[in-house]
Amino acid sequence: MKKRGKKFSMLLAAMLMIFSTACSSGGQSKEAAEKEEAAQAAVDPSQPSWKNDTSPITFDWYINFAWYTGTDWGKDLTSQYVTKKTGTSLNFIVPAGNEAEKMNTMIASGKLPDFVTIAWSDDAVKKMIEGKLVLPLNELADKYDPFFVSNVADPAKLSWYTQEDGNVYGYPNASSSPADFEKYGENYVSNQVFVVRKDMYEAIGKPDMSTPEGFLAGLQAAKDKFPDVNGQPMIPIGLHEFTDNGNYSLEGYLQNFLAIPQQKDGKLYDRQTDPEYIRWLKTFRQANENGLLAKDIFIDKRAQMEEKIAQGRYFAMMYQRSDFTNPQNALFANDPDSVYMAIDGPANAASDEPTLSGPGISGWTLTLISKDVKDKARAIGFLEYLTSEEGQRDLYMGEEGVTYDMEGDKPVFKPEVLEMLNSDRAAFDAKYGASHKYWMMMDTNVTDQWAPAPVDPFKQMMDWTRGKTVSASEFDQINPTGNSKEGIANTKLGQLWGKTLPKLLLAASDAEFDQLWSDYEAKRASTGLAEVQAYQQTEYEKNLEKLGGTK
């Protein structure tokens, strides 16, 4: 009995020692704790921390976009160069199907990959922060990389993304502050375009498609003259994919083309109720009644759309310009007249110029670092490198002497590299991997200084948006998210719209449309619309203060 008691005492002491050691290192192994201490000891606030340790390391990086295909890090010359320089390799993880399901599953598990890149507006951002699944970037920087905050990160962007607890959990890509807009605004272009296939459009007499009547007549004329494209049915009009929450093309895109304001006299304006918007939704309903909305547009995902663009099967599209790159190359190589070109699309009755979305301070995506990251110091250091001008140039231009040469103080792609970039983007990505193949931390305000002059067939689309591009930063991040009363109501409102929109387009008559719309408005009101709008107004006013006053 005494022997058993003695053994138990020894075992208990050993367990306490192990527990004590684990607690003292935050649950880490002794080796990991020592490595963190060494990383902190090596910090020089005046120098980038990524240079302190360039030993081999591989981070898992989750990209919350099922369409992203640039996951072959290490096979192209640019990623090889970055790994050679920093020691860092990346293992990209992309959802095979529904992004929201994959993200929610990971959040429910309580464990995330080292890095996460996700749309800034995604409800999962708040869930990750509230669940303490991601680390504050400012705290990581304080410990391991003060250079990130003092010399690299944009203070306006850090301020914009500072949460109520005083921490910053994500850093944006493609972000432009109001100061950036003042500095670079005249050169900004929008991604939002209304395009037509050039040869078809010219063959039907270049009709004015800015009015409902002209729009429907143009689609009909194209269908009549070109019922088939290489043996497959021509699709009169293409849109973004339909999701559980609606369709971008028939929401912000259409509203921007119609120049519908987002606020009036300091109060947010409910753009969905604007008469011009409803008039054009009825125009799309009429298009369906006329047999001009193909079934494809209700079911196709981005990959199928890109394939059909490359086949030239759409006559017109209200879509994002950036998704035409690869298909345009294929069309241009086959027949320069078969490419897509931007024209004046739907407009309001006064024919006002569109107010297309330009770069905003929220950017496009946020990148966050998981609490489970395998090396905190290396993670924040690599993020700092990618965000810095040096990292931007490496990812955009590649390696000097390999993909580009210096002409004075400007890096310029080698002729053979530029030729492939302009003629075969897929081959360029596979071989060189530069020019925003890896866009997760891209800062277009920095990289635009090195960007080669746009060429046909892409230049025309870009140029069409110049002068029509506006900043709408103050309207970003005003929607309630998470499990708050307003957040739950906003989620339900989005789902209600996602179910209603296809029904409106498929309505057999304007009278049926009107009844559906009346039912929709009643359901909106009973689902918490007033509370959501009050929340949005408060957040909008906070944004104005953050951005330095009213616009």
Task: Give the helix/strand layout.
Elements lengths: L1 H23 L5 H12 L15 E7 L13 H10 L1 E6 L5 H11 L5 E5 L3 H8 L6 H8 L1 H7 L2 H6 L9 E3 L5 H7 L7 E6 H6 L8 H14 L2 E2 L2 E2 L1 E4 L13 H6 L5 E2 L2 E2 L6 H15 L6 H4 L2 H9 L3 E7 L4 H10 L5 E3 L13 E2 L7 E5 L6 H12 L1 H9 L6 E4 L2 E4 L1 H9 L1 H7 L12 H4 L11 H7 L3 E2 L14 H22 L3 H17 L2 H18 L5
Parallel strand pairs: 1-2, 1-3, 8-11, 13-17
Antiparallel strand pairs: 3-14, 4-14, 5-11, 5-12, 6-7, 9-10, 15-16
Helix pairs in contact: 3-18, 6-7, 6-17, 11-13, 15-16, 17-18, 19-20, 23-24, 23-25
Strand order of the largest sheet: 2-1-3-14-4
The largest pleated sheet is described as:
5 strands, mixed
Net shape: globular
Beta fraction: 5-15%
Q: Let me know the CATH homologous superfamily of the largest domain.
A: Periplasmic binding protein-like II
Per DSSP E runs of 2 or more residues, the count of β-strands stands at 17
Q: What structural class should be given to the helix and strand makeup?
A: alpha/beta
Into how many domains do the coordinates divide? 3
Helix residue percentage = 40-55%
Alpha-carbon Rg, integer: 26 Å
| Mean pLDDT across all amino acids | 92
Count of helices?
Answer: 25
Distance between the termini: 82 Å
Can you offer a commentary on this structure?
It is globular and about 70 Å long. The strands form six sheets. A five-stranded mixed β-sheet has the order 2-1-3-14-4. It has a four-stranded mixed β-sheet with strand order 8-11-5-12. It is of the alpha/beta class and 551 residues long. The protein folds into three domains: 49-176 and 363-450, D-Maltodextrin-Binding Protein, domain 2 (3-Layer(aba) Sandwich); 191-357, Periplasmic binding protein-like II (D-Maltodextrin-Binding Protein, domain 2, 3-Layer(aba) Sandwich), CATH 3.40.190.10; 478-550, no CATH class. Strand 9 and strand 10 form a beta hairpin. Helix 6 crosses helix 7, helix 15 runs parallel beside helix 16 (325-334) and helix 23 crosses helix 25. The model is unreliable at 1-27 (pLDDT under 50). The longest helix has 23 residues, at 2-24. Helix content is 47%, strand content 12%.
